[in-house]
Amino acid sequence: MQTERAAKTRLRRGERREAIRRDLIAAATALFVSQGFRATTVDEVAEAAGVTTGAVYSNFSGKEALLYAALDASAVVPDLSPFLDDSASPAEQLGAFLSRVTRAASSGEWQQLQRLEQELLQLAQHDAQARDLIKRADRDKRATFANWLQSEEGRGRITLGYPAEEVAAFVVALIRDLAQQHARDPREVPTRFFTDAFTALLGLSGR
What we know:
The chain is mostly helical. It has two domains: 2-73, Orthogonal Bundle (Arc Repressor Mutant, subunit A), CATH 1.10.10; 75-201, Tetracycline Repressor, domain 2. It is built from nine helices and no strands. The mean pLDDT is 84.
């Protein structure tokens, strides 16, 4: 009986701790987006979350760790399902994926993520962990796209003039920039332009 009560107590403590972490991440995210990383203090995060400053340090090593957690929680995960549709041509797969990216770029979640990433880039100027985080994220994006290119080339559906890894680095950089342009001015950088430009650059032409 005592063992059961102790287990329930530990469970409640664990749930409470997770709830505090979520509240801290939400508060930090709102403050980082509204007033910037440097201008935000740990005390302000604690006050916004309704906890003590000590509770912040019980869950995170510092303000930088809060930013990393905020970025992770705010990540806009791209829908990769178009690349799994073997009935569609490479051009159709890419077009469907890019259409979803441009739609996501207009969302409030995307704008929030962009602001947090800007804060991370500033931090990375003097923080090695921030630089490593950016490198890992970029590496993962390049790898995902390079794997798709290699798969399609192996099936004889596309022909690459350069190594897949190099093409992926080029395309990922363009996707990031064009998505930002589309978010700022969707009339001048519409979805159709976005998708047509990439299919032409990769020489897919609807194959």
